[in-house]
Hints:
Oligomer: single chain
Structural class: mainly alpha
CATH architecture of the largest domain: Orthogonal Bundle
Mean pLDDT: 96
Helix content: over 70%
Order of helices and strands: HHHHHHHHHHHHHH
Largest sheet: none
Number of strands: 0
CATH superfamily of the largest domain: UbiA prenyltransferase
Strand content: under 5%
Radius of gyration: 19 Å
Number of domains: 2
Number of helices: 14
CATH class of the largest domain: Mainly Alpha
CATH topology of the largest domain: Tetracycline Repressor, domain 2
Amino acid sequence: MKATWNDYWTLTKPRIAFLVLVTAALGFFLGGKGIHAPWLFCCALLGTGLAFCGSAVLNQYIERDVDGLMQRTRNRPLPTGRVKPMAALSFGFVLVLSGVFFLLFTVGLLTAFLALLSAFLYVVVYTPMKRQNWLNTSLGAIPGALPPVGGWTAATGTIDPGAIVLFLILFAWQHPHFYAIAWIFRDDYRCAGFKMLPVVEPDGDSTCWQVMGYLVLLLIFSVLPTFMGLTGSVYLVGVTVVGLLFLAAGVALSISRTVASARLLLKASVLYLPIMLVLSVVDPGF
């Protein structure tokens, strides 16, 4: 079966890549207090996008066998044989290295290093850890929270407190989001041998405590940009409201512990992030 361009496009996980680019753009916007260097902004997004897409390809290369065991991933290009493993491996390395070197020569060393660090943590640390320990979610949340930091350093050249706050917001948000996914697809993950928390602890106690703890942290972290002068009062009110609604979805999961409540939590997480991002842009503190 011959691979198509769409198969290679699918390997790059375009929907997640779009989210990575949006969060990187937010970091650039808030760090630079606007987009005053459009060319630098575009270079930062292009390099970040290439590096992430390469990481996504390498992740699927490593997991090609177990992806074939799961209902939700068995039709991906590698498990079906539409893309050959060596072709995917080469494609992934080319994308990562192209992104990192492009950032190095057009944006700066720090941003390039963060892109390389993100790729390393995602591919070399997080991906194999999924089969070893339930802490893989927290480890995977680190590279997932680095894109806004990379955007910030592209605009400023430094890692300031504002960049750290953006990192903390993304780091906290990912936990209820991915725990909800793991709860919904835990049978799939169990078949693949992935040590997700809802799999290794079926009664859900630890998962619910983790979800609630990170939702409370998210409420705290998300208001910090206003007190740091990065966002205004409209952002503060809006992000608090959506944060409380997100928290309510976590409470619902803790009480009912059903797939339906996990789906509700997932929907709340998917709604929370774009609302927070839009509020940050429409009500900046500068």
